[in-house]
Design goal:
The protein is mostly beta strands. It has strands spanning 29-32, 35-39, 45-54, 61-72, 78-81, 94-97, 100-103, 108-116, 126-140, 146-160, 168-177, 183-191, 197-206, 211-221, 225-232, 242-249, 260-261, 265-268, 272-273. It folds into 2 domains: 29-160, Immunoglobulin-like (Sandwich), CATH 2.60.40.2310; 168-273, Immunoglobulins (Immunoglobulin-like, Sandwich).
């Protein structure tokens, strides 16, 4: 079933762009997996499954399920877009079942996502959609009023064609000064390919008398886009520091292994760049 309601939501997604669980006064729902990366040729059919779970120990949850387009906003958060409005939408290809579910405490239910890819789609294209599950529950306030609160979880679906390519480049690492006086690193990454990139690896900061190593995981860069990632350090960095980065792209549809290392980045950190 396809849902065509307009959706406006402000869920913030951390760097990995995974789905989000929102607690509401003891009520919780979760959706697994938080994202699916699929590959399919034009004219083919792809099926996938999400599992929706009521994590509450006491409350039954009545959930409505739907679709949305999505993008990443300038702050790295998830921007949910009314279905059919994005240039890379695939909501017209997607059917899902069920569209409504009632879950007892601790109960889980599978949601089937069925994608029929038109044979007119370019094999180098990539498309996205999001599966949403939401509920509205009454919340009692301290002054005796009852308000309605919306709880929503999101599972992301990426679909890449057989000729899509993921081509991320780490363009620059700079140091920025945060309002609290501490430093952060800003990574500027571009992706000139037609498929998204998912980056992991580590960054090392070297000064004369110390070394700092920072692990990175699931940094998403969408096709034909640029992003910057801000990494707070919680301290200031010596002026003579150098920075190096070793990153691997774990979503590389053009390679049989599905993985590729980016070129190693190494440079002096230099002066503090403007905060933007």
């Amino acid at each position: 079933m396809k849902l065509t309601r307009s959706i406006r939501a402000g869920l913030l997604l951390i760097a990995c762009l995974a789905g989000t669980t929102i607690p509401a006064h003891g009520r919780q729902i979760s959706l697994e997996p938080t994202s699916l990366e699929l590959s399919a040729a034009p004219g083919s059919r792809e099926r996938a499954m999400f599992t929706l779970r009521n994590d509450s120990a006491a409350d039954t949850m009545e959930l409505t399920i739907g679709l949305a387009d999505w993008a990443i906003d300038t702050d790295g958060g998830l921007d949910l877009i009314p279905p059919g409005n994005a240039s890379d939408t695939m909501v017209d290809w997607v059917r899902f079942s069920p569209a409504y579910v009632s879950l007892a405490p601790g109960e889980a239910r599978d949601v089937l996502v069925d994608i029929n890819i038109p044979d007119t789609v370019s094999p180098a294209a990539s498309n996205r959609t999001a599966l949403l599950a939401s509920t509205i529950t009454p919340v009692n306030t301290s002054d005796g009023r009852t308000l309605l609160q919306k709880t929503e979880v999101t599972g992301l679906v990426y679909l890449s064609g057989p000729a899509a390519d993921s081509l991320p480049v780490l363009d620059n690492i700079s140091r920025i000064r945060l309002p609290d006086g501490s430093d952060a690193l800003r990574l500027d990454v571009s992706n000139g390919g037609t498929a998204h990139a998912r980056l992991q690896g580590s960054i090392e900061i070297d000064a004369i008398d110390e070394r700092m190593s920072l692990p990175l995981a699931s940094l998403i860069v969408l096709p034909e886009s640029r992003r910057n990632f801000q990494i707070p350090l919680g301290r200031t960095v010596p002026a003579n520091a150098t920075v190096s980065a070793s990153l691997t792209n774990t979503h590389v549809p053009q390679h049989e292994s599905g993985r590729a290392d980016l070129g190693r980045y190494s440079a002096p950190l230099g002066e503090v760049a403007p905060l933007r």
